[in-house]
C-alpha cells in the first residue's frame, strides 16, 4: 500500500512540474510571438517609410551634394597622393656647371641669357680670390696673395685670359666634359 502511495505522489509531482513547464512554455511562446510581431511591424513600417513622401528643406539636398563632392575630391586626392612618385635627386644640367679648373687655376662663373658671364680666377691650392697685374711685356700675372701662387698669361689685361677661359668652358660644354667636372666638384664638396 505504501508503495502505491509513493507512486501516486510521484505522479502528482510530475503532473505539477508538467503544468508549470507548460505554463512557462506558453508564456514564453507568447512573449516570443510578441517579439516577432513587433519586429515584423518594425520591418513593415520601415519598408513603408522608405517609399513614403517626405517634406524637407531644399538646402538639405545641397548639403548632401556638397558632402558627396567633398568626399569624391578627397578620394581622388588620396589616390593621386598614393600614386605620386617620391622626388629623387634632380638630374644636373649644363647650367649647374659653374666651376672648373682651367689653365692651372680654378675658375667660377655665371650664365647670363645663356652666355658665360665673367669667369673669375681662384687659387687652386687655397681657393682664395686671385689678383692680376699688367706686365710691361704684353703679359699679366695672376697671383694668390695668400700662398703666393703665380701664373703668367699672354695679353696685357685679365680680359684676354677670361675670354680664353670662356672659349674653353664653351668647348667643355659642347664636348660633354662638363659632366665629369661637375661630378668632380660635387665629390670635392661632399
Ligand atoms: Zn692660394
Could you please describe the fold and organization of this structure?
- The structure is a single chain.
- The protein is an alpha+beta fold.
- It folds into three domains: 47 residues; 31 residues; 96 residues, no CATH class.
- Helices cover 56% and strands 18% of the residues.
- It is built from four helices and six strands; from the N terminus they run ααββββββαα.
- The chain has a three-stranded antiparallel beta sheet. Strands 4-5-6 form a three-stranded antiparallel beta sheet, covered by helices on one side.
- Strand 4 and strand 5 form a beta hairpin.
- Bound molecules: zinc ion.
- Zinc ion binds next to loops.
Please describe the topology of this protein.
Blueprint: H1 2-51, H2 58-83, E1 99-102, E2 105-112, E3 115-122, E4 131-134, E5 139-143, E6 150-154, H3 158-175, H4 178-189
Antiparallel strand pairs: 1-2, 2-3, 4-5, 5-6
Bound molecules: zinc ion (ZN).
The site of zinc ion has 8 residues, from loops.
Compact overview of the structure:
With 190 residues, the protein is α+β, with helices and mostly antiparallel strands. The chain has helices at residues 2-51, 58-83, 158-175, 178-189; strands at 99-102, 105-112, 115-122, 131-134, 139-143, 150-154.
